[in-house]
Design brief:
The chain is mainly α and about 110 residues long. Helix content is about 100%, strand content about 0%. It contains 1 helix and no strands. The longest helix is centred in the middle third of the chain and has 105 residues. The chain is rod-shaped and about 155 Å long. The chain starts with a helix and ends with a helix.
């Protein structure tokens, strides 16, 4: 009887060990799947961060180009105004000159 009891307990222990091995195998598979998921997400984060960095650099370049264009336009506008004022001054001088000639011819 004692020997049968021991055989039964050994059998139960072996079954328990088999269950433990199966549980460990399942847990290892789950861990592997989770690690794969983590690695995919890390790659996705790195890719997204790289894209954001490129986009940010592009936007900074656009800002600098817009600032340069604005500065050029302001300079061109200032030059145009200066030229326009100069041409108005020349036109006024020519008009005054013509008026003087006209007045002198009338005399």
């Amino acid at each position: 009887m004692n020997e049968e009891r021991l055989d039964y307990e050994i059998h139960v222990l072996r079954k328990h060990e088999e269950e433990i091995v199966l549980v460990k195998s399942e847990q290892k598979r789950k861990i592997t799947i989770l690690q794969d998921t983590i690695n995919k997400l890390r790659r996705k984060v790195r890719k997204t961060n790289a894209h954001i960095s490129r986009e940010e650099a592009s936007l900074h370049e656009n800002i600098n180009n817009i600032r340069y264009c604005c500065a050029c336009m302001m300079e061109a506008t200032a030059v145009t105004i200066w030229i326009f004022q100069g041409s108005i001054g020349k036109a006024a001088q020519q008009k005054a000159s013509l008026q003087r000639i006209y007045v002198q011819e009338k005399r």
